[in-house]
Amino acid sequence: MSLPETMRAVRFHAESGKLSLETVPVPRPGPREVVVRVAACGICHSDLSQIDGHIPAQLPAITPGHEASGTVAAVGSDVRHWQVGDRVAIAAGRACGRCRSCVFGGTIDDCEALEVMAFAYDGAWAEYVVTPGVSLISVPDNVPMEQAAVLADAVATPYGALETADLRMAQSVGVWGLGGIGSHLVQLARLAGASPIIGLDPVAGVRDRALALGADFVLDPLAADTPDRLKEITGGRGLRVAFDCVGRTSTVAQANGVLGQRGKVVLVGISAENIELGREGSFLGRRHAVIGHLGYKMKHLSDLVELVSRGRLDLSASVSAVLPLEDFEEGIRRLREHDGHPIRVLLKP
């Protein structure tokens, strides 16, 4: 298959802070790279964080989008395990090649300075995207490409967070913030055997959705009796793991306040706020831990493709809308304004 010379891509220009749909050259693969024709790519809050300046831009201009799936369109000369036409999900990162781990032969999962797609190099709000051959996972024919795109962050990041938390069966879980990451955390925690699972969000409709996705209880974090309700639900023991998908001092403080002995707060959400953890004594006396989590491993993405393919994980509710690439501004608006409380809005070139 020969690649066209040009393609459409959404470009973010850091100096002006503006986005525009432009005609740009189609990338060519290096020896170990693959060019993928994009089938779908999600709009994520971290994309908005770069656009809004909360995450500093690394390049003067870049194509956003790091949750993508597609078909292999061209392969580099040293790539042996992919062929044109293969269906793939694209992991949102590449090894830096310079850190100690990379120099001594580590894999992409071992890299100490992982470069993230759409931040360090061009993403997939485009017709084509280039990526290392080792950053792809095969997608079976029975997995819709839209769902495969959602896997590559919105599902894989919370899946990785379960590993970070070392979650075990029958351990109690609270999830603060039930958007894209939090909704999938609820689903995955149930699949992992957590009990009870408590979802917290100020929006009633979002809480109802979490119940349908597997939460045992849902609470309004702004209600005065929420800490008491959490302790009541857990039989006075408090939560074993609290996942904060919001990234605010108020949610982290509330989560820490309802942890049980040796409980953990896992920070998953990204915001522009400086987080304050509260009084040191509450951590010392009950042996609490706070752990940061970001991203996922290639194995996590592979596991999730398997779970969806076997019908163990249902992501049919995760694709809130699929818009053509030229409607990227409308997709951003829906996410920014929580229009319809989308789990994921996708762009389809």
Q: What is the CATH C level class of the largest domain, in words?
A: Alpha Beta
Percent of residues in β-strands? 25-35%
Task: Name the poorly predicted regions.
Answer: none
Give the termini separation.
18 Å
What integer is the average pLDDT? Answer: 94
Give the full name of the CATH homologous superfamily of the largest domain: Medium-chain alcohol dehydrogenases, catalytic domain
Oligomeric state of this protein:
single chain
- Whole-number radius of gyration? 20 Å
Global structural class: alpha/beta
Tertiary shape: globular
**What is CATH's topology name of the largest domain?**
Quinone Oxidoreductase, Chain A, domain 1
Topology readout:
Layout lengths: L5 E8 L4 E8 L7 E11 L1 H7 L9 E2 L5 E8 L11 E4 L2 E2 L5 H4 L11 E2 L11 E5 L3 E3 L6 H21 L7 E4 L3 H12 L5 E4 L3 H10 L3 E3 L6 H8 L5 E6 L4 H9 L1 E9 L12 H7 L2 E4 L5 H12 L9 E6 L3 H9 L7 E5 L1
Parallel strand pairs: 11-12, 11-14, 12-13, 14-15, 15-16, 17-18
Antiparallel strand pairs: 1-2, 1-4, 3-5, 3-9, 3-18, 5-6, 6-10, 7-8
Helix pairs in contact: 3-4, 3-9
Give your account of this protein's structure.
This protein is α/β, with parallel strands linked by helices and 349 residues long. The protein has 2 domains: 6-138 and 318-348, Medium-chain alcohol dehydrogenases, catalytic domain (Quinone Oxidoreductase, Chain A, domain 1); 155-292, NAD(P)-binding Rossmann-like Domain (Rossmann fold, 3-Layer(aba) Sandwich), CATH 3.40.50.720. Helix content is 28%, strand content 27%. The strands form 4 sheets. Strands 3, 5, 6, 9, 10, 17 and 18 form a 7-stranded mixed beta sheet that branches. Strands 13-12-11-14-15-16 form a 6-stranded parallel beta sheet, with helices on both faces. Helix 3 (145-165) packs across helix 4 and helix 3 crosses helix 9 (298-309). The model has no long low-confidence stretch (mean pLDDT 94).
